[in-house]
Each structure stands twice: as C-alpha cells, then as structure tokens.
Automatic annotation (TrEMBL):
InterPro entries in the record: Aldolase_TIM (IPR013785), DUS-like_FMN-bd (IPR035587), tRNA_hU_synthase_CS (IPR018517)
Top-level EC class: oxidoreductase
Protein name (record): tRNA-dihydrouridine(16/17) synthase [NAD(P)(+)]-like
GO molecular function, one term: flavin adenine dinucleotide binding
Length: 478
C-alpha cells in the first residue's frame, strides 16, 4: 500500500489533528504524552532523538522508543536530529514501525545543536537538507515531516519552506521565531511568517509559538490558516490547555504520577514536570522547592506533591472573601496557568542590572561571541581566566579533533584502529588485540593467561610422579 502524502496523510493518518504536543527533550516522554492525550491533545511527538546514537545503541532505542509501545499513544511522530543523510535514514528505518511519521528537527536553537551541527544550525545548508529529505522520502514507508524556525526575512522563509516541500516533506511545523530568539531573548513569535508559509505551500502546516491557552490556539488558526497548532511550554504548565480548562495543579500532578507508576521514566523527567506544574506555588513555598530538588525517589516526589497540595488547601481554607491572586497572576497559584517569560528588561530588573544589552544577556552572550573579552564572559569562565590569564575562549583556536572511523566521536590520538575508546574497546575485544593508546591489552593478557596455564601444568607433573612413587613404596612395605 503506497504511503499517504500531504493533506491525505494529515486527514487520515493523523486524524485531522489540530492540537499538537511539541517534541521536548526529556519532557514529551510516554507518561506525559498519555496525560496530554487524556486532556485534549490529538497528536504527540517523541522527544528529539539523536540519529547517530539511536542507530548504534540498542539501549538508547529501547529506552526511548522500543520499550514504550502503547496503543493509546497514536498517532505519534518520532523526531530525530541529524546532519548525515545515510545516518538519518538508517535511524528512521529502525523507528518507522513504531510511529506514523518521522520528523527532522531543523528548529533546535540551543548551543548543543550548534556544537553538534544540527537543528536550526542547518537552515542555511539547503543542498544537504534536500539530500536528507529526498533519501528519507524514497526509503521510508512512513512520511517525512520537518520542524523549522524562520529567517528574519519572510521571503527567504517562504523559499526555505518551498524547498523542503519540493524535496519530499509532507508536513511542516513552523516555529515563528528565529534561531537567535531563545531564553530571555525569545520575544513574540511571528504569525506573519507562519501565515506566509501556509499560503505558499500545498502541504499541511502546523504553527508553533505564542500558545498559552485555548483562545491562542483558536486565534492562531484563524489568523494563519494552519491545519494545527503545537504547544510546548504552555502544555508543560497546563496539560489541559487543549481542553480550555485551568484545573487545580495537584489534580494534574497526581494523575501524571499515577501514569508514571505504570509507565516509568527517569526521575529527572518527573521532577522537571513537577517544577513546571507547581512553578507559581514553588515561588511561595521555597522550602518545598528545595525538597523537590533534592528528593531521590519517586515516592519522595509523591510526598512533596502531597505536601504542596496540603499547603494549598490550607491556604484556600484561610482565604478571605474577595481576595485576588498576587504577583500579577490571572489565577491563584494553585491553578494551572501559563508562565509568562520575562522580557530582557524585566529579567535585568530581577537580576539587579541596569537593563543594558550587556546586563540582559549575561553569560548567554558568550554562546555567540566567544572572543575572550572578560567583560562578556560568564562568571565560570572569568574564574578560569583568573587562574590562567593566557586562556582563550575563541572557538576558532580550539583544536580540531579527528573523528572515529566507526561513530564520528573524537578518536584517540594514538589509537591503532583510529577509533574512540568505546569503539576501540569493542573491536580489540572481538579481535583479541592490543591498543596501547587506549591502554587496552586483550592480546597481552590472553598470552599471559596461556603462559600461566602452561606453567601450572609443568608444576603439576612432578607432583603427580612423586605421588606415584610414594604409592609404589607404600605397596612394597605392605
């Protein structure tokens, strides 16, 4: 059966999904997806998976996809970050039986994406992206989709989207911010860019950015004409966003913790979700915030959640008539509601700075301009500079490492196989070989063990002959 494309794919496979939970690293795991689906989400993405690691590591595949099969968790799109067509497609082939589409991440703006050369830092490499999508479209049995960020120029953004469509992309998610708009500099997403893309392509388009409540979803669809709307932070603070409800925080937290009992995930994921859900309450009860940060077990997290619930219920019982929410909140802090990220000026005031650009960006400026100027360095790097005044943070001066022939990680300078230590260890063990560069001596140890066994046989032989002579003597005496 030929795979569905474009509008037919969105309508039949994705069931005309309008409400979408974004791919979020360590945050859109199975338990959270199931909670979101119970409260209105119609389509979910996995967290961003690293194609290279997914391809070579069976444990990574099991932990992030294979071990999570759940009939309720469909339709589902698996997202990969990648920068090599063959690696991307091979990883996607291993994932395609567990999902309804494969998404290529072209939107991650974080520094780790810059270092790894993926996400939004591929948006200028159109030839590479065309090759990746063309190959995926040819080889995969499920459609290929893309999630992008915009360029400052609308026309360039439109041409970018059209290029991806022509290469074989069957659905496009457009985050209406540039790759520079992140953290305190995020600002407002441009729905004008999204609207222009929607008008210029014939494939389905999802919008991402500025989604904090259901009315935002409806307004975005009305203004841009997109097929669906994706939410990330809005969903984390209120999983019932797509229902148009603002439930009590502990209701969502308790339901999520129940799902985690059935579908376990790393404790760090659970803790992060509780920090988001209880964000406003934890500004009031700072001690419980510290306890949540330190707790080491799921049972401990459940206990902190229960204590937060009791504190809020006690506060509700003592509430005076006509009392209004504090700190500029729309609802009382125990009700699920969005967190409005402070802008640069507000962030400066919080930090006690003057509001200048230098004060706004703090250590983040170093991510883009590591030129060694101590005034622009983070506190941590300023300390390093004090210890070593000659130290430079200019990325152009960093040594370029040769890559491992097997996995692409930096190889050992003296490795006899031209590999990183992990790959070298596997090969040396398999071939019973030595690699002095990595301190692996499988051949030497094997030869020593053989030598020891031979020496043991030599020691045992005289003992046996002596024992035989003694037995003969005893027989003669008798």
């Amino acid at each position: 059966m030929p795979k569905l494309r474009g509008e037919a794919f969105w309508r039949e496979t994705l069931r005309s999904a309008h409400y979408v939970v974004a791919p979020m690293v360590d945050q859109s795991e199975l338990a959270w997806r199931l909670l979101s689906r119970r409260h209105g989400a119609q389509l979910c993405y996995t967290p961003m998976l690293h194609a290279q690691v997914f391809l070579r590591d069976a444990n990574y595949r099991r932990e992030n996809l294979y071990g999570e099969a759940c009939p309720e968790d469909r339709p589902l799109i698996v997202q990969f970050c990648a920068n090599d067509p063959e690696v991307f497609v091979q990883a996607a082939l291993l994932a395609q039986d567990y999902c309804d589409a494969i998404d290529l991440n072209l939107g991650c703006p974080q520094m780790i994406a810059k270092r790894g050369h993926y996400g939004a830092f591929l948006q200028e490499e159109w030839d590479l992206l065309q090759r990746m999508i063309l190959l995926a479209n040819e080889k995969l049995s499920v459609p290929i989709t893309c999630k992008i960020r915009v360029f400052p120029d609308i026309d360039k953004t439109v041409k970018y989207a059209q290029m991806l469509e022509k290469a074989g992309c069957q659905l496009l998610t457009v985050h209406g911010r540039t790759k520079e708009q992140k953290g305190p500099l995020a600002g407002v997403a441009s729905w004008e860019h999204i609207q222009a893309v929607r008008k210029a392509v014939s494939i389905p388009v999802f919008a991402n950015g500025n989604i904090q409540c259901l009315s935002d979803v409806e307004e975005c669809i009305r203004k841009t004409g997109v097929h669906g709307v994706m939410s990330a932070e809005g969903n984390l603070h209120n999983p019932a966003l797509f229902e148009g409800r603002n439930p009590l925080v502990w209701e969502m937290a308790e339901e999520y913790l129940e799902i985690v009992q059935k579908y376990p995930c790393p404790l760090s994921y659970v803790r992060a979700h509780l920090f988001k859900l209880w964000h406003h309450t934890l500004q009031v009860y700072q001690q419980l915030r510290e306890e949540l940060a330190k707790v080491k077990t799921l049972e401990g997290i459940v206990d902190v959640n229960r204590e937060l619930k009791l504190r809020c219920q006690e506060e509700i019982a003592n509430q005076k008539e006509g009392e209004k929410p504090k700190e500029g909140l729309r609802f009382f802090h125990w009700i699920c509601q969005p967190y409005i990220r402070p802008g640069p000026k507000e962030r400066c005031k919080e930090n006690g700075t003057s509001g200048t650009e230098k004060g706004v960006r703090g250590k983040r400026i170093l991510e883009e301009e590591e030129d060694g100027n101590s005034e622009l360095l983070s506190k941590n790097k300023q300390k390093k500079k004090l210890r070593n005044p000659n130290k430079s943070f200019d990325p152009s001066l960093k040594p370029k490492y040769a890559k491992c022939d097997q996995c692409g990680n930096p190889k050992g300078n003296r490795c006899v196989f031209n590999m990183c230590r992990g790959c070298c260890k596997k090969r040396a063990f398999k071939e019973t070989a030595d690699c002095p560069g990595h301190g692996l001596l499988f051949k030497t140890k094997y030869e020593k063990s053989l030598s020891w066994k031979h020496s043991q046989r030599g020691i045992q032989s005289p003992d046996m002959s002596q024992r035989g002579e003694a037995e003969v003597g005893e027989a003669a005496d008798s």
